[in-house]
């Protein structure tokens, strides 16, 4: 079956941080096959192809079970590809890498550690040098996410949205070149989720990174993305690659703009067209 990919562009100006145009992630004919308990083969991803430029904010949307999270885990070196090739910065992904930050669906903070200690955990695990400077670095990150006054509190004392901001600070602690985000705001209420989208954009513009962000929310995808990758139902294939040309910084008014609605309809048309076939 030939894989059909739509590339869409629109008018407008994308503000900093603009991507450099240099390929940073290269995924070629990637397939991931799981073995079930009944010894049957389950194809999670089927011959997916994707390139992501250095500094680009790329959002992946698709139905549940289409392999979105699996794709992130392959890039993180947590899941081994069954076939195909995956490269980051020109190097094949064969094991977990120290230059990747991962933000999960829940904050996964260690309850017995303070907020500052949680943020600094990647530095401790990776045995990073300059331990004397860790605290100042951690406080700087907490200031960026607006939580410097909570450094000595514990996770149970923070709301869900605040915990996710700590998770973002922790993912940035070791200055990764790639930030992987697996539905980090999925459990939040709608109002907090919109606020976190604006907050994430602000942090990304302060600390530019290549980002792959997984979501089920079309509006979240359009608001955050430079590009939206649409995946089909399982087995997951890339069926659309949509360039989102909305000016940054984006704010609450962006959700009501004509271009925002057009991009949302375009993404939705792909998702519903595929589910109807």
Please tell me about this protein's structure.
With 277 residues, this protein is an alpha/beta fold. The protein has a single domain (6-99, 177-276), classed as P-loop containing nucleotide triphosphate hydrolases (Rossmann fold, 3-Layer(aba) Sandwich), CATH 3.40.50. Helix content is 31%, strand content 24%. It contains 8 helices and 11 strands. The chain has helices at residues 68-75, 115-119, 121-125, 134-144, 160-172, 190-206, 218-224, 258-276; strands spanning 6-8, 23-35, 41-53, 57-61, 83-88, 91-92, 100-103, 178-182, 210-214, 227-231, 238-243. The strands form 2 sheets. It has a 7-stranded mixed β-sheet with strand order 1-11-10-4-9-8-7, with helices on both faces. Strands 3-2-5-6 form a 4-stranded antiparallel β-sheet, with helices on one face. Helix 4 crosses helix 5 and helix 7 (218-224) crosses helix 8 (258-276). It is globular and about 50 Å long. It starts with 5 loop residues before the first strand and ends with a helix. The model is unreliable at 1-20 (pLDDT under 50).
């Amino acid at each position: 079956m030939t894989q059909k990919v739509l590339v869409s562009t629109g008018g407008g100006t994308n503000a900093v941080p603009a991507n450099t145009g240099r390929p940073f992630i290269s995924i070629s004919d990637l397939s991931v096959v799981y073995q079930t308990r009944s010894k049957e083969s389950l194809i999670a991803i089927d011959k997916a192809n994707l390139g992501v430029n250095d500094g680009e904010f790329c959002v992946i949307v698709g139905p549940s079970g289409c392999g979105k999270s699996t794709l992130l885990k392959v890039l993180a070196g947590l899941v081994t590809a069954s076939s195909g090739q995956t490269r980051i910065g020109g190097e094949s992904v064969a094991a977990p890498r120290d230059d990747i930050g991962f933000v999960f669906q829940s904050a996964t903070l260690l309850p017995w550690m303070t907020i500052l200690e949680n943020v600094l955990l990647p530095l401790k695990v990776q045995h990073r040098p300059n331990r004397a400077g860790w605290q100042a670095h951690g406080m700087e990150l907490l200031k960026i996410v607006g939580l410097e006054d909570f450094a000595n509190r514990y996770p149970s004392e923070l709301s869900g949205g605040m915990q996710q901001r700590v998770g973002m600070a922790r993912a940035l602690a070791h200055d990764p070149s790639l930030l992987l985000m697996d539905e980090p705001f999925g459990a939040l209420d709608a109002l907090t989720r919109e606020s976190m989208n604006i907050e994430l954009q602000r942090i990304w513009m302060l600390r530019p990174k290549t980002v792959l962000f997984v979501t089920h929310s079309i509006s979240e995808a359009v608001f955050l993305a430079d590009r939206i990758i649409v995946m089909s139902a399982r087995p997951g294939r890339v069926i659309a690659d949509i360039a989102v040309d909305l000016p940054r910084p984006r704010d609450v008014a962006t959700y009501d703009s004509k271009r925002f609605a057009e991009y949302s309809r375009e993404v939705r048309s792909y998702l519903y067209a595929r589910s109807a076939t």
